[in-house]
Amino acid sequence: MKAVILAGGFGTRLRPLSCTRPKSLFPILNKPLLQWTFEKLAKSGVKYIIMAVSRQTRFQIKSFNVDAGELKIVYSCDPPKKPLGTGGPVKKAEKFIGAEDFLVVNGDIFTSLDYSEIAKFHKEKKAVATIALCRVDDPSRFGVAELTENGRIKKFIEKPPLGKAPTNLINAGVYVLSPEIFRYIPKGRKVSMEREIFTRLAEEGGLYGYVFSGLWTDIGRVEDYLKLNRVLLDSHFFEKKIVGSNENIREPVIIEGRPHIGKFSIIGPHVVLGRNVKIGKHVHVENSVIFPEASIADYASISGVVIGEKAVIGKNVKIEENCVIGDYAVIRDNIFLAKGVSVCPAKEVSENITASRCVM
Ligand code: GDD
Ligand code: MG
Prior knowledge:
Elements: E1 2-6, H1 17-20, E2 27-28, E3 31-32, H2 33-43, E4 48-53, H3 55-64, E5 72-77, H4 88-92, H5 94-97, E6 102-106, E7 109-111, H6 115-125, E8 129-135, E9 143-147, E10 153-158, E11 169-177, H7 193-204, E12 207-211, E13 216-218, H8 222-233, E14 253-255, E15 260-261, E16 266-267, E17 271-273, E18 278-279, E19 284-286, E20 288-290, E21 295-296, E22 301-303, E23 306-307, E24 312-313, E25 318-319, E26 324-325, E27 330-331, E28 336-337, E29 342-343, E30 348-349, E31 358-359
Parallel strand pairs: 1-4, 1-6, 4-5, 8-12, 14-17, 15-18, 16-19, 17-20, 18-21, 19-22, 20-23, 21-24, 22-25, 23-26, 24-27, 25-28, 26-29, 27-30, 29-31
Antiparallel strand pairs: 2-3, 6-11, 7-13, 8-11, 9-10
Bound molecules: guanosine-5'-diphosphate-alpha-D-mannose and magnesium ion.
Magnesium ion (MG) binds near residues 106 and 220.
């Protein structure tokens, strides 16, 4: 089976880190999300992948050299300055697909869903499209499905208003589609798969839902991204490697290479340290993801934060939950950043920021 990976969106809710990398290249336990997706698809027998991206994302992914193993990867780019949405790129990939069923996967999700099972279900039901569905507490940020007893989706509503969702079964961002789908998607323009195609298919009876339970997260927001890393550190996806007898570490912690960690610092629980991160003395880091080559100076305290590549955190800095520090940003000594502050790439911060905002 072939698969299309949709990875051309802008990742607005993950700014400023998504200004410098697409969501699909965000590290999850120090491995780019896209590589997890490649490995999972390869395990389910997929051999051929169509990357539906913007030109910028194609450039970023190629420069990053994500390991695709034996997979054959082709790029199908949206026209410059004309993003095709979630449906247009599928139509554009038609020439690569041929006459078999194929998979479509959103590039910003992590899941334990078995792709072969949903493909089997799709065949049995003779569906035009089958959507993987999972249950969440707040469905309002997602596409929501209402099912009949035999698994047909009778109604599909994209992002219903708060409290108006008919069920808490949401579109997990994985579909199996029959080639018949191409007759439904108009060519050469932006198309919303969810708002235009799924709604119509639901009315006509060709849309099915495959309900699964297990791990599923969309990394659309900073809190989701941190939570995914945390959940995985607590799961079997994390194969703990001994990092030496280090009294600094409060497990679970994943560390790439051999970082420098100063005396009396406490790292963890739930910390991901990228390659060549430097940590001074008396530092405290918990529940955070630190991208490669960032440095954190003495007495800094960091909790629930994502710190970008090569960012420099000064002495005695305190950074609160859900802050995001862009790549190459510099936070001067003794600065305090309150909850939810985001700092743009390469920005220097030399005054306290006491309320949630973006420092540009
Ligand atoms: N090539 C291309 N071009 N890809 C795009 C474009 C585009 O114009 N717009 C979005 N994408 C990609 C994104 O990179 C992402 O991987 C996927 O399509 C979905 O877009 P998002 O922008 O992340 O949508 P969402 O998270 O708000 O909602 C979608 O995903 C939810 C599950 O995570 C919908 O499909 C919802 O129904 C679903 O519940
Ligand atoms: Mg998303």
